[in-house]
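Reviewer comment 2.1 asked that we show a complete input and output for one of the modelled complexes. We chose the 2-oxoglutaric acid case, as it is the one discussed in the main text.
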Amino acid sequence: MQNDPMGAVDAMLRSGRVADATATVARLAAAGHGGALFQQALWQLQGHPLPRDLAAARLALRQAADCGHGEARLVEITLAANGTGAAADWPAAMRLLAAANAAGDPHARYLHGLLSAMAIDGDGHPTTPLLVEPLTDDRSVRRVRGALSVAECTHIANAASDLLAPAVVVDPRTGRHVPHPIRTSDAGVLSPLREDPVIRAINVRIAALSDTQVAQGEALTVLRYRPGQQFRLHADVLPQVRNQRVATVLVYLNDGFGGGETTFPDHGLTIRPKAGDAIIFDNVDAQGRPLATARHAGEPVRSGVKWLATRWIRARPFDVWTGPETA
Ligand SMILES: O=C(O)CCC(=O)C(=O)O
Ligand SMILES: [Fe+2]
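Response of the prediction step:
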């Protein structure tokens, strides 16, 4: 136990001694223990058991990284790129990534490889315009073929794979979780902690494709549909929110499965998923009123597994930490 003070902290948490655990971590962090600094940063990012303090988390990560804590270094790179706890600083994130790569970190090397294959400038913005093809006469549904590479699609699916959970809603009568009536797929949300520079650059690309700012996007959500699973006919607009979902970008992460088409019945439109293709559609009209014709469905998957990433885009910048319901 003496050699592994963080093991003792785990034991305290398991036995419900939360105050002891936070006090021990605070003491170790003040003494410059990398693992404790990293733990403190994670708690400050999650907002429990410590209050959320994104700027303090960044400081703790910096100190942990200086102690040679490899995971802290990777999280610091992620947050520097996506602007958590400080303004987004792509060049700084790239310098930190290059240093981690030079120090032999295999994950940094992998991320660096994916980023090197992207056509992006020194701020992580796409340099080559992608062709946006209208799929409806009113141009409210559009497609960009090959918006993402196969390697990028695989990276997104892998980044969410340990987060995937069945869709549930709370039954107002019993208070129990019951299966979601509309969507039966599993989902995982790539919060800023998971929005590494590769995913950040993809979110910036999605913003460019949809002519929006990256800050308007909700966290990228990955959906996985197994045979029989579907997203029944629905609209993406939310009831009673001030900051409405004005547009949606879907990216198909794979293909080769049976079924799983995206349909817009009011447009008579059926889209066959192809890995890397992005579908962009408006959920509201020019006055900001919900567009009835934006109703759409993910048809049941008949065979194989369908993977998709969704970015719901708000009218104004959206704080991903406060969650979709409170915005
Ligand atoms: O799976 C699909 O094709 C549709 C997904 C969808 O409607 C959504 O993510 O909002
Ligand atoms: Fe949808």
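Residues 260 and 301 are 4 Å apart (CA to CA). We note this here for comparison with the apo prediction described in Section 3.2.
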